[in-house]
Each structure stands twice: as C-alpha cells, then as structure tokens.
Amino acid sequence: MSRNDRPKACDIFGYRPVSFETAFPEIKNFEMEVDFEPELLRDSYTAHFSMDKRPTEYIDCRESLCYRGGFSVRDIFSEMVGKRETKYDGWQMCRGYLGSPKGKVEYQACVSRWKVRVSIEYNSVPTTPPETEHQLNPPRS
Ligand SMILES: [Zn+2]
Q1: Which residues pair with 70 in a beta bridge?
Q2: Within 10 Å of residue 103's Cβ, how many Cβ atoms?
Q3: Residue range 5-57, pLDDT digits in tens
Q4: What whole-number distance in Å separates Cα of residue 92 and Cα of residue 89?
C-alpha cells in the first residue's frame, strides 16, 4: 500500500493556496516555519512559507495511517490578524485519525503535531477587518 492512498485534509478541504490579498489585506509580508513531528514515522520535516511560497489552506499530515489529517493555516492567520499579533509560536495538533485501510475502523486519534512559527508584517495603514471572515469556512452539514 502506498503511503499516499489515504485522503488528507487537503483532499477534503481543498488544495487552494491561501489567498492572502483577499482574506488578509492587512498582511504586508509573513514568514511561516513548520516542523512536522509524526507519530509513527520518522520522516519529520521542516517547511518554510512566505508570500512568495504560499501554504495551502490546510497543511497535510504525512502519517501514512492517518485519515483527514492536517491543520488549518487559515485558522492561525485569522486569529493572529484578528488580534493583530506579529508572532505565533505554538503547536498544532493533527485533526485526523488512524484507521483501517478503507477508513471504516477508527483506531485512535492521530497525535502527529507541528511546531509552527509565524511572523507577520502588517501594512502600516490599518484596514478594516473583513466582516465576512468567519463565513469563509462555513460548517459543512
Ligand atoms: Zn495525522
């Protein structure tokens, strides 16, 4: 079984890169560093993102047994921009679960995690936060 045969967060929520101009017009520049700590595998990795190399809305979990795994980049930026914070340094836990080959049996929550560091440079003239921000990730019924 290949290690890419289980749907990850991006397969479910989409691979769109975060559209910073529309979603976060007050961000002038940013840098994001992500260190992945997998639960079972040992192929941890570090990834760097910036305005020139944008992340997708969700970063996928690379744990091979994990379903729907990943974390939301947009959530981090939404919270930071809402509070106008310039630094974030914290852990993001995987949202996925470890399951049987077809995903029918849920063994346990995936405990892979990412150490995430973000620094944001804001535009000097504050713009009004978009009031529709919370509607960008509507709950799916
Ligand atoms: Zn996972």
Answers
A1: 60
A2: 12
A3: 677 777 766 666 667 778 888 999 999 999 998 776 667 889 999 988 888 88
A4: 10
What is the C-alpha to C-alpha distance for residues 27 and 116, in angstroms, rounded to an integer? Answer: 18
pTM for this one?
A: 0.73
Please report, for the chain, the start and end positions of each structural domain, with discontinuous segments joined by +: 9-121
Q: Are 94 and 61 in contact (CB under 8 A)?
A: yes
Long-range interactions of 46-51: CB distance < 8 A, separation 24+: 51/20
Q: In this structure, which residues have their CB less than 5 angstroms from ion ligand 1?
A: 61, 63, 66, 69, 94, 96, 110, 112
CA of 21 to the centre of ligand 1 (A): 29
Amino acid at 7: P
Beta strands in 51-138 (DSSP E): 58-60, 66-67, 70-72, 87-93, 97-99, 106-109, 113-122
Residue written as token pair 């919270």: 79
Tokens of 113: 């995690």
**Main-chain phi, psi angles of 20, to 5 degrees:** -65, -35
User: Cα-flanking dihedrals φ and ψ of residue 73, to 5°?
Assistant: -70, -40
Strands 66-67 and 45-50: unpaired
